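pinned: reference chain
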Amino acid sequence: MNAVCVMCAMGMIGLVGSAAGQQLDFAIDPAQSSLDLSIEIDLGSLGGDTDSDTTALSGFIDASFDDVEAASQASLHDFQAMMDSDLEYSWVPAFLSTADATLTGGLVEYAAPGIIQGPVAVVAGAFEFPAVPVQLAGTLSVNYDIFFVGSGSQVVDLSTLKPGDTAIGGTLSVDGGVATITNTIEFTGSQPLVVDGSELGQVIFNGLATMVAVADIPSCAADLNGDGSLNFLDVSAFLAAFGNQDPVADFTMDGQYNFLDVSAFLAAFGNGCP
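pinned: its structure tokens
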């Protein structure tokens, strides 16, 4: 839809009752967010061992709700959770065999940015996205000394692991103009352990990320330039976002940009700001 059509539609203000979606940029709180990542070295018939470590997480979650203070639908746009510290591991996978590793630069992130997940139903503040592609990244530096096999080192780039689809459940709560979402993500992956050019076994990853993230609730969804008033500048901002297919213009949160978004924006504009 071009700008002329949108401006013509301004005459519909007050006649349209669609609710505007609110996209919020949530900041992950490292004091309440963590990753528990276990790594197993599986040497098949030779044996195996598992170790785990934990780190705080920080980063962001971009999500939207039809009405954040009385939400019935939620959509997920993007997320990235960075590990705030290196993870250390030590294994005794077989007789007279040892291995240790350090994971640096680790993060858990959405593997399909630009593709909106949902909307899904929000019931009593709870929601679940059933199949979200999740990518684990970071550098795992492994040193090993395997009895009757040899010693050496291997660097595993976790970003080469195939993203896995996982369910992401969460809750939304609102208090004093601040929205809080709590999400949990379980994921798994594996990478061959190669020694002297031969695959000796597998390195298997299992993680549980808990993320608590907060965002200030905009007092007026149609105030796109954030100046506290509604005027042509907000209409202009909407037109620009709509033309660029910026998610801020996706007022219906369906991943499409059409007259329904225009109608929802006009309804929010017509309702005014507090």
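why pinned: The chain has a mean pLDDT of 85. Residues 1 and 258 are 7 Å apart (CA to CA).
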